[in-house]
Write a structure and sequence with these properties.
Rossmann fold, DNA polymerase, domain 1, TIM Barrel, 8-stranded parallel barrel, 20 helices, 43% helix, binds flavin mononucleotide
Length: 530
């Protein structure tokens, strides 16, 4: 055992180093903390398809995985396999690699891990250490990070092994067996530094001792086969004891168990809607346009195109436009709209995946027509009686909407409808709507037996919603009590109430009703005119 001037203040770490003749370093995640750059490059590849990956998705589905595999998953999860401009996975991955190399040049100085350059200086200053970089990355990536135009450290290493030198990537031991062969060094004299479970497993399976230096993306992985787990590569590095790792892992395990339970609760709705989260963005006339539907679909939820009373040609072209990129979305048809029959014919002919009947309720023959087109049919139900009738008409799912909803509303509150219908009906998926705006509420409704939810107002506030900024600001400024239903003064003049923010329009509508009622009473106009 050599006794060089120590680098690590911790004796246990240093003595492991002292018993080594060859020090091997991993590249990605160990020398540079490049996961954020990987995320950026991946997002740059998918941005033309409207897809953005967040850190949570990245950690769960991408860290330490083969890019081809997780690219396939992204395409499936974000429903873009039908996008007309989607390229083969191989092309997308090589595009990502190109973007990565471009981005790494800009970001390099900010992503070098703490202490790593000092540690490389140290092992370089001790002649008895041979040095290697062992990485699954391609040679171009190694060059961009560690070559002359990067950190300029490759010249300090005796051996460089990259992904191009092996057939199987880590955790397979092939790459470390190659190191043993190339360096002609017995594995017990090699010490490898790795940041990930896959890297540690690869080294230890080859019989090489391995010090794990987890980063923020890998800290929850299983490092039980590592010789030591340490906090970083500075001189003050500390050993992270298995106890602490176990506690962190138990926490992570609990979290993933919870997530699995939530997945189970969401399964029925997700299957029905082909989504990742069973949240429908309820149709909002002139608000739920092609843009919003796409954005909602990309986020893993369910977008619904509002047909309102738009000219039939416009509905047709909207559906055509959406179909260019999305196989699955809803079309909301208002049964009392003058253009309803045309709309229904178009939705059936265009074979949209989900047809949603709203605004009063459809006839049994209309439900049948929609189903015969191959669509899954959802019907709005603002009362228990309508819900029962829609089930008897053959609806595949029900949107149970309470009077807390924005827009046109029924007479019964969400809580009452839940008890009257949701608690009684188990056969078909039920989506709850009206006053829902938080993840907690969604989860509680799933626990109560809902297949999912439909939200409207909350989506108006999204940046992807093209509604006027002032419209959004009015919602943000408003208090809960500022929303009210338009009143009906006399059953002689029935009003389907709209729940909206109190404003001048609301006052004018009330005034108009009173004027019309007066004229009606005086016999100046009849009921139809009124
Ligand atoms: C501005 C606005 C317009 C709406 N337009 C429609 C519509 O055209 N068709 C429909 O079925 N529902 C419509 N709704 C209802 C929504 O689809 C959804 O069911 C409702 O907003 C859910 O309640 P929440 O706003 O409390 O989330 C509208 C809602 C809002 C806020």
């Amino acid at each position: 055992m050599f006794s060089p001037t120590p680098y690590f203040k911790n004796k246990e770490i240093q003595s492991l180093l002292n018993t080594s003749k060859l020090v091997s370093l991993d590249l990605n995640g160990l020398i540079v903390d490049d996961e954020p750059v990987q995320v950026m490059a991946t997002n740059k590849v998918f941005s033309p398809y409207g897809v953005t990956i967040n850190n949570e998705y990245w950690i769960t589905n991408c860290v330490g995985k083969n890019a081809h595999k997780f690219f396939e998953k992204i395409i499936k999860d974000f429903n873009i396999d039908n996008h007309p401009e989607i390229k083969p996975v191989k092309e997308l991955v090589s595009l990502k690699n190109r973007y990565y190399i471009e981005l790494i040049k800009e970001k390099l100085s900010t992503i070098v891990r703490e202490g790593v350059l000092e540690f490389i200086d140290y092992i370089n200053s001790k002649v008895f250490f041979r040095k290697a970089i062992v990485t699954s990355a391609e040679p171009e990536e190694l060059e961009a990070i560690a070559g002359e135009k990067g950190l300029n450290i490759t010249g300090l290493f005796d051996i460089l092994i990259t992904g191009a030198d092996v057939k199987k990537s880590k955790p397979d031991p092939e790459i470390y067996l190659k190191l043993i062969e190339k360096s002609r060094t017995a594995p017990e004299f090699i010490i490898a530094f790795e940041d990930s479970e896959a890297g540690v497993k690869s080294a230890t399976k080859a019989g090489i001792r391995c010090i794990a230096v987890p980063n923020r993306f890998t800290k929850l992985q299983d490092f039980s086969s590592a010789t030591l787990v340490i906090s970083n590569l500075t001189q003050d590095a500390e050993i992270i004891r298995e106890n602490n790792l176990v506690i962190t892992r138990i926490k992570a395990q609990k979290r993933s168990n919870k997530l699995r339970e939530i997945e189970k609760l969401m399964a029925k709705g997700n299957k029905f809607l082909s989504t990742r989260v069973p949240i429908m963005c309820g149709a909002m006339t002139w608000v739920s346009d092609v843009h919003l539907v796409r954005a909602v679909n990309r986020a893993g939820a369910f977008g619904v195109l509002a047909s309102g009373n738009m000219p039939p040609e416009q509905l047709e072209s909207n559906i055509d436009e959406l179909k260019k990129t999305d196989k699955i979305f809803g079309v909301n048809l208002i049964t009392i709209a003058p253009n309803f029959q045309n709309h229904l014919e178009i939705a059936c002919r265009k074979k949209v995946s989900h047809i949603i009947f709203a605004g009063s309720y459809p006839k049994a023959s209309e439900v049948k027509k929609a189903k015969d087109s191959g669509a899954k049919v959802l019907c709005f139900a603002p009362t228990q009686q309508i819900a029962d009738r829609m089930v008897s008409f053959g609806a595949d799912g029900i949107i149970l909407e309470g009077s807390e909803a924005g827009g046109h509303i029924g007479p019964v509150s969400t809580v009452v409808l839940i008890q009257q219908f949701l608690f009684e009906m188990r056969e078909i998926p039920i989506f709850i709507a009206g006053g829902i705006a938080s993840g907690k509420m969604v989860l509680h409704l799933l626990l109560m037996g809902a297949a999912g939810v439909q939200m409207g107002t909350r989506f108006v506030l999204s940046k992807e919603c093209t509604a006027h900024q002032k419209f959004k600001e009015a919602f943000i400024r408003a208090q809960a009590r500022d929303a009210m239903a338009t009143p009906q003064f006399d059953s002689a003049l029935p009003v389907i109430p709209v729940r909206a923010l109190k404003n001048k329009g609301m006052k004018n509508f009330a005034k108009l009703q009173l004027e019309l009622l007066k004229k009606l009473e005086e016999g100046k106009i009849d009921r139809t005119q009124a």
